[in-house]
Amino acid sequence: MKKVLGLGNALVDIMTMLESDALLNEFNLPKGSMQLVDKETANNINNATKHLNKKLASGGSAANTIHGLANLGVKTGYIGKIGKDELGEFFRNDMIKSNIEPKLEYGLTDSGCAIALVSPDSERTFATYLGAAVEISDSDIRPSQFDGYTHFHIEGYLVQNHALLLKAVQTAKEKNLIISLDLASYNVVEANLEFLENLVLNYVDIVFANEEEAKAFTGFEPESALIALSDKCEIAIVKTGKNGSLIKKGDDSHSIGIIPVNSIDTTGAGDLYASGFLYGLLNNLSLDKCGNIGAVLSGHVIEEIGAKMSLNKWEKSLLMIDKISNL
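RE: above sequence
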């Protein structure tokens, strides 16, 4: 049985709907980026937005992808670190409720949170307090955690911890797992480019990147970036927002469109695309079908607030995925 293990920053998402982008400027947060902040700044942002509509959800890029796979019926597990507090227990319980095997360690500080500031045009900007999540280290990675799993999915936000990521991919390769990496944020890619290039070339089988991340990694626009990425790994995926996605494996390449939706919040779109794409691969579907399943999930998740879909959206998605799978 194919099973997917995730590794990422265990964060609780605090989805916050902005009335304008003024607050982004006030806190020097570049629109569309992920910025690390300290606890004081996180508290200040939360206080400045306390009058706005908010929604809590367990999150972190890899956790979102793992949740998506679990909702598709895939056996999954997740490695991360939480604090001994209410947010930490919220995160753990949400994993268990979703039939995800939690491989969570406890840190010394408060649980991390990602304040997702959603602009009126649906673009989201993250002010992330890593808290206990950042305490995860290479010493927390053990070979036994990988037993029984066939695939390993990691988020690029971890790339700043070189020792952790290297130990994780080396252990996964020793256990013969297929490794997928979501590059996660263009500014993280820029700051760790040399390390990422070596990691992808030597360990990673599948790379997910949006067009900004792909450009930061390769220096090229989407079409050329796809070619450059595919030279370094087995399967390269470049997500191009409203234009869909590009996929390449050797000489096999595809341009995938989107489904018609009413976009409310783009949080989780890339993470759920990865869920759909990996689900297709796990079921031995063609690359274009994998991409189309990714498009279904990424399309439906942006019709709701946050990176989790309602039961109604999942039912609709599963019907569409069944049709794609049987074409």
